[in-house]
Amino acid sequence: MNLFQSILIALVEGLTEFLPISSTGHMILASTAMGIHEDEFVKTFVVFIQLGAILAIALMYIKRFFRSLTIYFKLITAFLPTAVVGLLAYDYIMAYLFNPVVVSVSLILGGVILIFIDKKVLLQETTVEEIEDLSYKNAFFIGLCQCLSMVPGTSRAAATIIGGVFNGLNRKQATEFSFLLAVPTMLAAGGYDLFKTDLAFTSEQLMILGVGFVVAFASAWGAVKLFLNYVSTNGFTFFGWYRIALGILFLIFMWGTDL
To answer: Is the pLDDT of residue 217 over 70?
Structure first.
């Protein structure tokens, strides 16, 4: 991976991490298209840029994290299913599911679901005034939905947003809860990946890590601001059709190049 490729991958991560279109799926597709070989450094780079993106959310919502302890308990409740399933299934997922075909199919199926949930959102009103008022039962169910995102291409954001909508949240609330839940989820996943990785880098690799971190942070900040404004009035249908189109196009690309 050279510097130019790292900037592109970090940009993809930042722009897609908190949108319901699968950042992991986009990075796999982008890496495949650019011919990037997944070695230990590339795996570590992906973790670092994800931490850059999550820092953007942590700073953006820092006041909410200091508002009350309730939000921490709800987030922990939602995080538990992912922690358990992740520890049990991590090796299997990394070995068998991280490939472009799985990503493409997951993008298409998730896109269809996103289009259909917009109809449900239009017919319902929120059952809580603030996301802190979400019941522990509903928070746990959203966490179960997040487990589906371990399949590359599903999208952690899409899974948790869909889970939030089906548990009485409106578009904005479901999206914000998804953002907040990303903090413990991605920190735990990133920490676990780093623990399993050999952290010995050259000066050039350290530069690439630093540049990627900054690019992911800045692009994630901008993407989240735009996304919240958009979904509050327009919903998720556009992202559904985008996922379907991207999944189909990449299946055609792989068929044509015998990837």
So the answer is: yes
pLDDT for the residue numbered 39: 82
> Which pair of structure tokens corresponds to residue 169?
């949240």
What mean pLDDT do residues 168-190 have?
90
Q: Which domain holds residue 28?
A: 3-257
Q: What is this structure's pTM?
A: 0.87
Is the distance from CB of 230 to CB of 112 less than 8 angstroms?
no
For the chain, the C-alpha Rg in angstroms (whole number) is 18
Which 8-state DSSP code applies to residue 169? -
Taking alpha carbons only, the member of 70, 61, 68 closest to residue 180 is 61
Q: How many domains does the chain have?
A: 1
In angstroms, rounded to a whole number, what is the distance separating the alpha carbons of residues 213 and 215?
Answer: 6
8-state DSSP, 19: T
Other Cβ atoms less than 10 A from the Cβ of 242: the count is 16
The separation between CA 246 and the C-alpha centre of its own chain, rounded to angstroms, equals 17
The number of helix segments (H) and strand segments (E) in the chain equals 11, 0
The DSSP output letter for 60 is H
Cα separation, 44 vs 199, in Å, equals 8
Buried b (16+ CB within 10 A) or exposed e, 85-118: bbeeeeeebeeebbebebbbebbbbbbebbbebb
Q: Cα(146)–Cα(224) distance, rounded to whole angstroms?
A: 19
